[in-house]
Amino acid sequence: MRVLVTSSRNTFALDLIRKLGSVGHTVFASDTYDGAVGNHSRFLAGHLVTPSPRFETDAFIAAVSDYVRAHDIDVILPTFEEVFYLAARVADLPDGVELYAGSFADLARLHDKASFQRLAQEAGVPIPETVVVTSPDELRAAIDSFPRYFARAAFSRGGVGLLTNTGPLAGKVPVEDCVPTPEQPWLVQPFVDGPMVCTYSVVVDGRVTAHTTYKAAEQWAHSTAIAFIAVDSTDTLRYTQQLVDTLDPGFTGQISFDFVDHGTEVTPDYKIIECNPRPTNGVILLEAEDVSRAIEGAVDQTVVAVPGTERQITLAVLADAFTEPLKHLPTTLHDLLHVRDVGAGWWDGAAMLWSPATLVHGAKISHGDRKEMLAALGDDIVWNGEPIEGMREADAAALESVHAGRV
């Protein structure tokens, strides 16, 4: 199989490149800047620098299409929100190439947090009480109705921009900075006690072929996970299949969910929070052969990560330790000695040496504002619900339907 992995800046994209390349697939990578870590893996046959899918959609599709033809690529494997631009323009991709993703309509339903909460209800998956607000006045009324609340934009990601009065992020975002609109609504929920539990799944023709459930042993700035431990998948695998069953029967792609577990260590009790219709770091907890077979659909039973498996992004763990040394350093020292780094055993260290290039890329987009850096790291590849340049009429209608079905 000849595969193009897009948005190769992410650690999980690099992990997919390594795993697919190590078992014999011919792997190429692309991103909007040359310094993306995945562009420099020794497991690559080549890499491409593309225009931004968000800001230069036509040029992005043209560049990817030309590369697919030039290198006889069989499968495009998106790893971030460029998946929406590719899915909306799938008819413009070369004949014969498979986009490893669901339809634009399904992806939009999953990604829009307001429409997703309705989908979860349809699927019978537990979800906290949810209020969708479309104005600042509605937002204030909603948060006043919950003694402890948790709110975020319908299009948000990576634990960035969370409005809450509870936990370590309480008060970090002023309510005055939050401006819901009908086009960009916000969700308000009661704050649910318990740890965040995340999942990653591969789905082929409506069947989950690989699945991981994991907790974030450590987080960068209380948002993005940088250390991971696999936990039991019994409940989350069932919920994931229920959600997939509400989509097109032929849905194929990668999908990830966030839950809060407000049960006990013996009896978990999950409530679903959101969906990322793309891979996340959960793929790191799976073995290379299993990932390859799952993507190809060549498994009789769902491959599940072994509970207790641990991995960490060592460079990020070290960086986070020095932001609050007294709080993080003891845990960091333990993890450095006992937890396996995501790059261990790959002999591919040159790729991660390009990590500073990603920070520089984010700094350019955020104009050097450190507090906006995390949000800016993917700003040129995200999708926030807008109509996409050149999208088909059917997909435009599907997008309108998603927006209309929020409330």
- Cα-atom radius of gyration: 20 Å
What are the low-pLDDT stretches, counting only 5+ consecutive residues below 50? 219-223, 315-323, 332-338
Proportion of residues in β-strands: 15-25%
- Taken in chain order, the helices and strands follow as EHEEHEHEHHEHEEEEEEHEEHEEHHHHHH
Q: Major beta sheet, specifics?
A: 7 strands, mixed
How far from one another are the termini? 43 Å
Write down the CATH topology of the domain at 196-313.
D-amino Acid Aminotransferase, Chain A, domain 1
How would you sum up the global shape? globular
CATH class of the domain at 196-313, named: Alpha Beta
- Please identify the structural class as seen in this structure: alpha/beta
Name the helicity range.
25-40%
Total number of helices = 14
Q: Could you report the average pLDDT, rounded to the nearest whole number?
A: 86
Instruction: Supply the CATH architecture of the domain at 196-313.
Output: 2-Layer Sandwich
> What would you give as the CATH superfamily of the domain at 196-313?
ATP-grasp fold, B domain
By DSSP, the count of extended strands is 16
